[in-house]
Amino acid sequence: MSVEEKIPQFMELAIEEAQRASKVGEVPVGAVLINSDGDILARAHNCPISSQDPTAHAEIVAIRRAAKHINNYRLSETTMFVTLEPCIMCAGALVWARIKRLFFGAPDPKSGAFGSIIDVNRLPGINHRIQVQGGILKERCASVLKEFFQERR
């Protein structure tokens, strides 16, 4: 089975990570990073509250883990799956890590940086463009977030 055929499965793993975040009171965003063969390099979820680190978004934690795993800060030929459209901080990290492809679930109209409030791929001077596709299991990804915030109100 090709990586393309496994896109829903990888997004399901990212949803599992988001659910882990929710269980510990973190905003439920999950990420999975794979190599070109479809091997998982890292899985992560948001943890800025528990780690007391404002940069500990799921995407950045996954990038850090994968870079250590392969012993290289360049993550060329990798693909990220994340349940929510990355913010500008995470979009920048994806660019600097040279992530090849990004699949995200729900758009983020408040802070999404791949089309919602800004599109990092269209910024002048950026020397790496990421292949992006949003809306993967969009409703499931959005429902995890919606349920989390409904419980908080």
Task: Write a concise synopsis of the structure shown.
This protein has helices spanning 7-23, 48-51, 58-70, 88-97, 138-152, and strands at 30-34, 40-45, 79-84, 101-106, 131-133. 39% of the residues lie in helices and 17% in strands. Helix 1 (7-23) runs parallel beside helix 5.
Key structural traits:
single chain; 153 residues; five-stranded mixed β-sheet; 5 strands
Q: What does it look like?
A:
The chain is an alpha/beta fold. Helices cover 39% and strands 17% of the residues. Strands 2-1-3-4-5 form a 5-stranded mixed beta sheet. A hairpin with a 5-residue loop joins β1 (30-34) and β2. α1 (7-23) packs parallel to α5 (138-152). The chain is globular and about 40 Å long.
Major pleated sheet: 5 strands, mixed
Instruction: Give the helix tally.
Output: 5
Helix content: 25-40%
Rg is 14 Å
N- to C-terminal distance: 43 Å
Structural class: alpha/beta
Overall mean confidence score, pLDDT:
96
The geometry reads as globular
pLDDT < 50 stretches: none
Order of helices and strands: HEEHHEHEEH
Strand order of the largest sheet: 2-1-3-4-5
Strand content: 15-25%
How many strand segments? 5
How are the SSEs ordered, and which strands pair?
Elements: H1 7-23, E1 30-34, E2 40-45, H2 48-51, H3 58-70, E3 79-84, H4 88-97, E4 101-106, E5 131-133, H5 138-152
Parallel strand pairs: 3-4, 4-5
Antiparallel strand pairs: 1-2, 1-3
Helix pairs in contact: 1-5
